[in-house]
Amino acid sequence: MEQVRFTQMKDGTRDEYQFLSTLEHEYIARLPDRILASVRALGDGLSGYRVSRFEHSLQAATRALRDGADTDMVVAALVHDVGDELAPENHSQFAAAILRPYVRAEVTWTVLMHGAFQMIYYGHHLGLDQHARDEHRYHPWYGTCEMFCERWDQASFDPDYDTLPLEAFEPMVREVFTRPAFDPILTA
């Protein structure tokens, strides 16, 4: 079979859905390649900074790695801004949704909230709530997100920083995005 015959899902047969399931598994297996391509594509994004979003992402991941962060956090630092292109008004949520099936909840929450936490650095310049993160001050992962933003995200716009290439992070990306989705051991 090269393609299903149905034109409405309700008319599909068991054989057709098994065929589609096989194709979906093959497609999912190539997710790390698409994640890496999405990070690379950040090189053509928002301008005006001294580094591209691609370089920013590499730099954030490099800083996380050099700080001794675990694989999940390093990958999160690498992909935290992949939503900039398609979801500029909610890029944090976009990136968190991509990570959620594969990492622990603390990492997902940190990426989900990093946009609000970053406001501390610039919100007052734009008439926005600089202290938007304060509503989460009693959350158990507040400190994690605060550290993520302070040490890795907001600090990663330096064109002179000794940033590692994307290839240095490829094994970690492949490790994270080939895990079983929603594994209770990882995502609890």
Describe, in plain words, how this protein is organized in 3D.
The protein has 188 residues and is an all-alpha fold. It has a single domain (12-178), classed as Orthogonal Bundle (Hypothetical protein af1432). It has 9 helices and no strands. The protein has helices at residues 14-29, 31-41, 53-66, 71-79, 91-99, 105-122, 142-153, 170-176, 184-187. The protein is globular and about 55 Å long. The mean pLDDT is 96.
Labels describing this entry:
single chain; 188 residues; mainly alpha; Hypothetical protein af1432; 9 helices; 53% helix; 0% strand; globular
Short description:
This protein is 53% helix and 0% strand. It is mainly α and 188 residues long. The mean pLDDT is 96.
Name the CATH class. Answer: Mainly Alpha
Work out the helix count. Answer: 9
CATH-defined topology:
Hypothetical protein af1432
Total strand segments = 0
| Residues in helices, as a percent range | 40-55%
**Beta-strand fraction estimate:** under 5%
- The overall number of domains is 1
Q: Which H/E pattern describes the elements?
A: HHHHHHHHH
**Classification by helices and strands:** mainly alpha
| Poorly predicted ranges | none
Mean pLDDT: 96
How big is the Rg? 19 Å
What is the strand and helix layout of this fold?
Layout: H1 14-29, H2 31-41, H3 53-66, H4 71-79, H5 91-99, H6 105-122, H7 142-153, H8 170-176, H9 184-187
Helix pairs in contact: 2-8, 3-4, 3-7, 5-6, 6-7
